[in-house]
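Human: My hope is that you can spare some time for a protein that puzzles me. I am handing you a single protein, as its sequence and its fold in token form. Could you go through the record with me and say what the backbone is doing? Take your time, and here it is.
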Amino acid sequence: MPWTRKPRLHVPGGLYHVILRGNARQDVFFAPEDRRRFYELLAEGITRFGYRVHAFCLMSNHLHLALQAGDQSLSAGMQNLAFRYTRYLNARLRRIGHLFEGRYKAYLIDQDAYGLALVRYIHLNPVRARIVKQPAAYAYSGHRAYLGREDLAWLTTDWVLGQFGSRVGVARARYHQFVNDGKAEGHNAAFYGGQADSRIVGEEDFVKAILKRNARRRRAPTITELVTYVCRCYRLNEKELLAAGRARLPAEARALLAWLALKTLAAPLTTLAQRFGRDISTLSHARSRIEERSRKSSTFAKALDRHLYAISQA
């Protein structure tokens, strides 16, 4: 039986350990200007997609982020970030091709139990890699900003520092000590998925609660429900939606239908093609155009997220 990849978990307000690795472990940052450009794109993503960055570390061939999801799923934001940075770097280096290795990794973290430890783990990455002896000596992580030695307006530090005291100076000193206390720790597999569910890091009760909540929200809609929804959005009837021809409005509606069917796990493209008498390659190209447009347009990406939300609430 073929292995089936589990769908991503979207929990608004949830804390995620996100990892992006270079294709074949090759470098993704070659000069300080590359990291500065990545900062800019990350900051733009906060505004466009509503997530927060609590910690980060940019190594030469991979990066770690501690992100708090907003109402929109992280997928749109991370896909946009990877696409735009790849486009920037390929243009600068005058090359083509993939930069990152497959899909980004994202692990939902029990923030109360493991949030602080995750921030420490991310900021100590250069120490574990023996690049520096002190985390503050590494220029491309959030640690220096937490100590007040660097100004990164897009980095959210309030939650972490708030765990160490109400006075900023005291909180920074305690945070500094907390991070230093972890310097002897090595690689921690716990931050790369739990045993109960590889997508979640947390205690048993937390995992059960997340899966129960997700099961309620993720009931896959039927194809009929999706057709009804898309027809309502485009003010078409089913006959108009499925009519032969290349009229713009029905074509756009069919593309959205194909995209929604895959995103909501309602049906594979083969099923849609058989039911509606369409060629599977046509539906696949239509769905790909939707995804390409969403990567280039934050407005369109937000519209897609609204469609997914509306379907989930139906």
The beta strands are 15-21, 52-58, 62-68, 105-109, 200-201.
